[in-house]
Amino acid sequence: MSLLDDVSIVVTPNAYKASKLYAVLPTAVEGSELITNGDFSGGNTGWNPGAGWSIGSGKASVDNASSTPLTQSGLAVIIGKKYNVSFEVSDYVSGGFQFQFGGGQVVAAVSANGVYNFSAISTVNTTVLYLYGTGDCEFKVDNVTCKQDTGADMSVTRATAATRVDENGLVNYAEVLGSELVTNGDFATTSNWSENGGANAWSISGGKANCVAFASGRFFEQDNALATSGAGKNYKVVFTVSNYSQGTLYINVGGYQVGAAVTSNGTHTQYIAVTNASSNDSVYLQSNANTILSVDNISVKEETRNNVPRIDYTGGGCPHILAEPQRTNVLQYSQAIGSNGFSAVGTSIVADQTTSPDGTQNAVLHKEDNSNGSHFMFKDFNLSSGQAYTISIFAKSNGVNRDLKFGDGGLGWSSGFNTTFDLSEGTASSGGVIENFGNGWFRCSVTGTTNATTSRLIVYNTLNGVTSYQGDNSSGVFLYGFQIEAGSYPTSYIPTSGSAVTRNKDQFTRDGIASLIGQTEGSIFLDITRDSLESYTQRVLTLSDGTTNNVIGIQLTSANDITFYVENGGSNQVAITKSNATTSNVSVKIGIAYKANDFVLYIDGTQVGVDSSGSVPATSIIKFSNPVGSLQYVGRVSNLQLYKTRLTNTQLATLTS
User: In 3D, which of 384, 393, 389, 506 has the Cα closest to residue 459?
Assistant: First the structure.
């Protein structure tokens, strides 16, 4: 028999949506029934009929000229919890039926016979359920149920966008896309599109929207494309330009927000945020005066980035769940590197020279001139004194033996750097970290500590590791994704385009699942890969009641120790520790088992220690942090399994091997 026959929760890098990471198991679990006498077999028991309501023959009937409720008190509906609701409507004549929490939150509204199932997150704390007949209502209701959904899907909170490496090895945002909003985006017919003010510049033929030169700017539009008007939505737009001759094209979403100017053939991807409250529901191809080009295959989809869990494929192979601390990229232009105000010596920054790690042609070339000397750019940054900063950039050699070097110029750093990165061999000199991202791209990083508020950064091109050489006016280093962040190690890329950008920490939690957690005995298996050690003790995983007094947890200290610990009623019961337990970017498999006076820790197939004395607390919440949401784990999670039984030592050894 497989261990998975006994597992109560399995969380892997699996399906997800905004704010949710789906568990593999259990597929569907519900709490106990909250409604008394929902089949009405007990007559009025539990129910308070309003005007026009009566209960008999196993059904609740309503016949009233105006809206009227049938209520039940004594429930415990909790804000933020998910509930599954079902009911049957029969003998329908008129009006509507509404299922409401607390008389305010409408969970379901129907106006026909049928058996209905709904799910909703409660927005209220209430003890009262309302079944409303609305309007001039006449029908019957039966088999009313309401149960809390206690599945193990984890809630995800970050409230900002964040990048990851996707299954194709590309660096991009973790996002969820809606359905296609544009009709006839391939221009197969002449319908759905029209030119504002008459057909003067735009027309459809040959499966394309074609723009001919006109004396003023024009708008080729599709009305009613967006689901809503007004501000607050973000859209991903993909389109192809061909037959470009002259002029400028913009994609306009909502009438006020436009993407970047397009002046070349090719397939273009743009992200457009609608911020104007007066925005409409239209999509426009907006051409400047005297523009000549064709557009095809335009796609517009609503895009969500905030709170989307990051399923990350860094290093290839199987994916993992990425959890990182809050970080800020203080460099204002991470991609338009030439806009950051660097002073160039023997070099220049040339935009859009090759395909970057995000799959588009937006990498710059730090190009050397033909002088015989050093080839570099430098800038003095205003940073906080006494703070560790990590500088990182994606780099690719362009030319024979052209490599990258970071230097501190001896200004503003107590713990500085002069680090060379070999972009052919994928190696770094002392103090540097280099990661292979494929296709000749490497992410190069160094860390230094400031001792002043002004600190210099020098970015050199080198030839065979030497900074001074005869340039050829064409070679150099391709660059992309420049980042400067406070911290002792690099985190995932944070794009910027004119100002510093902060990515919030990733938080994963699931509460209200005491039935899925072993209350008197149980086991946990974790497969994790840490990025770096933090200055605090990370709570890799905790089971708790929401307080720090009752916890079953696994923690990783700043000294690289893993400890399995148990707190019951605020008193420590267990602490089993392995020293030097992890290695950066190397998977470690952890298994623990607990039962009264029977506790054990396994790591990578080996028993670390046991404790034969201690009690087990009652728990109902899972978090990748401490019970109150701080001291979060930083790194990657490949697999989490919870068991409601105490696995044998042999099983734990096998599971963690």
Answer: 393
- pLDDT-wise least confident of 72-81, 138-147, 179-188: 72-81
Average pLDDT over residues 435-462: 97
Return the closest-CA partner of residue 530 out of 585, 581, 602. 585
The DSSP letter of residue 383 is: -
Domain boundaries defined on the chain: 30-149, 176-304, 327-503, 507-656
Tell which CATH classification among 3.30.365.10, 2.60.120.200, 3.40.50.2300, 3.40.630.30 matches the domain 507-656: 2.60.120.200
Angle, vertex CA 45, rays to CA 41 and CA 51, nearest 5: 100
Residue type, 353: Q
Q: Return the exposure string of 109-148: e unless at least 16 CB atoms fall within 10 Å of the residue's CB, then b.
A: ebeeeeeeeeebebeeebebbbbbbbeebbbbbbebbbbb
Q: Which CATH architecture has domain 327-503?
A: Sandwich (2.60)
* Rounded-to-integer distance, Cα 223 and Cα 255, Å: 11
Strand duo 105-110 + 82-101: pairing: antiparallel
> Helix or strand or coil: residue 3?
helix
Q: Give residue 583's identity as a one-letter amino acid code.
A: T
* pLDDT band of 593, cuts 50, 70, 90: very high
- Paired tokens of 427: 């190696």
Whether the pLDDT of residue 509 is over 80: the answer is yes
CB-based contacts of 208, cutoff 8 Å, min separation 6:
187, 242, 243, 294, 295, 296
In the predicted structure, residue 3 carries a pLDDT above the cut 70: no
Looking at CATH, the fold of the domain delimited by 30-149 is given as Jelly Rolls (2.60.120)
CATH: 2.60.120.260, 1.20.1560.10, 1.10.287.130, 2.40.30.10. Which one for 176-304?
Answer: 2.60.120.260
Q: Widest CA span of the chain, in angstroms?
A: 99
Q: How many helices (H) and strands (E) does the chain have?
A: 1, 55
Model pLDDT, residue 328: 98
Residue 28 in tokens: 């569907």
Distance (Å, whole) CA 35 – CA 147: 8
The answer to whether 327-503 and 507-656 have equal CATH topology is yes
